[in-house]
Each structure stands twice: as C-alpha cells, then as structure tokens.
Input
Amino acid sequence: MTTDEEAEFTELVRRQSRFVFRVAYAVLLNSHDAEDVVQETFLKLYRNRGWQNLDNERAFLARVAWRVAVDSRSRSPQPAGPISEPDQAGELPSPRPGPEQTLLNANQMATVHSMIDALPEDLRVPLALSAFDELNSREIGGILGIPEGTVRTRLQRAREMLRKKLSALRDARLQETRYV
Amino acid sequence: MCDDDNLDQLLDAALSTYADPGPDSGLQERVLAHLAVARATTAEPPISVTLLRPGKSSANRRRWLPWAVALPAAACLLLFFFMQKTAPLRSSRAEQGFMQPPHAALRTENLLPSKSGSARRKPLSQPVARMTQPAPLPKLDVFPTPRPLTSEEQALAVFISHASDAERKALIESQKQFQAPISIAAIRIPPLEPLKPLDQDTPDPNNN
Output
C-alpha cells in the first residue's frame, strides 16, 4: 500500500469509525464488543483493500460492520438476551445509568436510549440505521438484506412502540409529581 | 397533538445521539493504533500464512488456488492407478499361495534369508500359515482314485485280448506257479567226524 493510500485509509478511519461503532453497538448493545467490531471491520477492509472506489461508503461500511457484529455475537459465549423495559429499573446491560436513575435525574435522552436498547433487534437495528446520517429505507434494506417495504414497516413499528412507552412513562411521572 | 410532536422531537433527538461514542472518546486513535500493530505484525508474512489467511493477498491466493486443487487431484489419480496395477499382482500371489501345499510354503519361508531374530520369527506367525493352507479337496465317489494303466498293464491287456485259450491257460498256470507257496526240503547236515591225530595216520617218511 502506498503512502497516499495509507493516508486515505487513515482518513477513512477518522471519518467513519464513530458511524461503524454505532452500527455495531445497535447490534451488540455493548461498548467494548462494539469497539472490537470496529477494529475488526477496519482491519478486514485494510487487508482486502475493499474500501477503495466505493459508490456508497456509508452503506458499504454499515453492511460490513453489521455482518462482523452478527458474526461476533454468534461466536461470543454470552448471547444478547432480552432487554428489560426502562420501567423495570437498573437491570439494563447498558453502559448508561439505569432508567430509574435517569428518570429521577430527568435525563430524558438516556431514558429514550434505554428504551431503544430494549427494542427487539429486528426493530432496533433499522431504527438506529435510519437515524445515522439519514440512510434511506432502500439502503437499510440493502445493508440488512431485507425488502425496502419491510424496513419501512419496522421503522413505523419501532417508533410507535417508543412513542407508547414514552407517553406511559410521562404519565407515570406526572402522577408521581401529583401525589408528591 | 402537541404532545405527539414533542415525543417525536424527543425521539429524533435521542436517535441522533444513540450509541454515539462522541468525538472525544478516542475511538479513532485506538482503532488506528490497533491497525498499526496489525500491520507491523503482518508486514512480511511467510507464504504459508499468506495462503491460509483470508484477504491479505488475494492475488497471491488466486495464483496458488489452481495448484491447491490440482496437486491433491493428481495425487489421488496416481494412487488410483497404483492401486489398479497392484491389485491383480496381489490376487495372483494369493492364488499361488493357495495352490502351494502347506509344507512347501513353510519350507520356502524357512529358506528365506533373515537378518534378525524378529525377521526369523515373522514367517512362522499365524497369518502366513493361514494364507498358505490349501482348500480341502472334494470327496470322491471311488476310492482310491482310478488312474490310467501303466505300460506293463497295457501290454498284458493287449496280450490277453489277442491270445488263444491255451496260451491264456498257460499264463494262468504260470501265474499260479508264482503264487504257490515255495516248499524247501529240509537240509540234513551230518555232524563232522573227529579229526585223527596226524602221527597215527600218516606214515613216517623216514621209515621207508
């Protein structure tokens, strides 16, 4: 690999490593495992030289990272189990603080993140990909190997579930404040 | 309605930061450092590693791929032909072993030159003896097995077919004579007379 190519690859890593991490985290729900997947993904790209002359860099990277993450999860001895709901506080395998604490701290973002973590994987991954740099449904379908219509349906279902949970949480919080 | 809009805004905001490690997490530096280490360790890989490891040198792999397929195939073909050639040889040897009587087989084995004690013991082992044992012969209706006439017997048969009755009788008589017991007359041997002294019988030549 020439010096120019090395520089180009380094720039690619700087530009896209956060994006790759987010894709990996959406699958694995673990920061350390996600970082391992980022390193493995870029190492594969470096060895294959498959990163040169890409039409859609983000879609390609997302597909590679998703594949590596799924393979990594199948290899790992502890598969990701079902995630508890945010109202069943503090038992999430997430690096963020538990839902009760986040609710008490009025950290709404962390609460929503916990709710996203608790979604089923077939809903969570398309939702996360749709949020990252505005990948459209066709690109997400290409990454996950599912039809575009299925992606749209899953996105709607995921958003609907999150809305319901958020409204229920907000109502509970209002009642708490009323009684207090 | 206003609440729904707020929820959507909250969702979009949360999704935009979902799983984002942040710009100051040092992720890029860690990934680059890991890549540098991996590059350093795989700078000059041996050819075996290049062949086995996927993706490092796809051109090299593609160059070696036909050989990787062709060599085992050629080895298999050679083995097949070798086995085809040796199979008839082995079967003929086995047949020879069955045709040889057991004592002959053992004798030839014992005559084989042996360099060590273990080599000497080997021919006497069970499998070899078992291989040289002949198959049991089939049982015959007539015993002993009829054999062709000898030249003397053939000559006798021809003589009997052409001879007259008198000649046949004479032959039978002569055969009877041979078959009759031989009687030998008792031999009488008289006892020897005692020897006379030489002085009494023989006259003195000086007296005359």
